[in-house]
Amino acid sequence: MDKSVPVVSKIFCSGAPTMLMIRRRPAVVNGGGFVVTDLSHSIVFIVDGCGTLGSKGELMVKDGEGEPILSISKKGGIVQALSTRNRWNGYSMDYQGKNKLVFSLTDPKSCTAQGAPVRVHVEPKRQCKKWDFEIGGSFADRDCTIVDCTRKIVAQMGKKGLMGGKDFYHVEVQSGYDQAFIIGVMAILDSIHGESTRC
């Protein structure tokens, strides 16, 4: 029985837990962002931030061949300006360049909302009523966990050995979960915290 949980696509779901290594690119090289490799050092994903894309609040996740697979944008407008939360939308991209909303992430943006959980809603709606995934812990300390609405761990982030730090860390994605989606979430957290994808 297939136990995969695709968000972007089933092709990014693995039958076994997968360790992904994330290395930041300096902002002066290719506009920043980061590169994601597997344990054999093959490039699996490339994330471009606004230094490459040219506009704030815009992120792009590409596959190992450099083909765009996920476009992410921070929602703007007057309603967003009055809200206590920021909203980011992730769109899958097909071979014709068409975008389809696949998830949205909300994060607190004011001191009154500090401590409020960062939650992800998947489109189309699933069995969970209020939210599909929740992020806990500290991205800045490279110690955060993504759980589903049943509190099952989906992905866990940490520092990698002695080289670990802000520039080089890892995320372990559990079997059946969409790795492209997880990297999209990591890209948003990176931008929220003003790191490699931010202008």
UniProtKB/TrEMBL annotation:
Protein family: Belongs to the LOR family.
Chain's gene name: LOC103641692
Name the UniProt record assigns to this protein: Protein LURP-one-related 6
Domain of life: Eukaryota
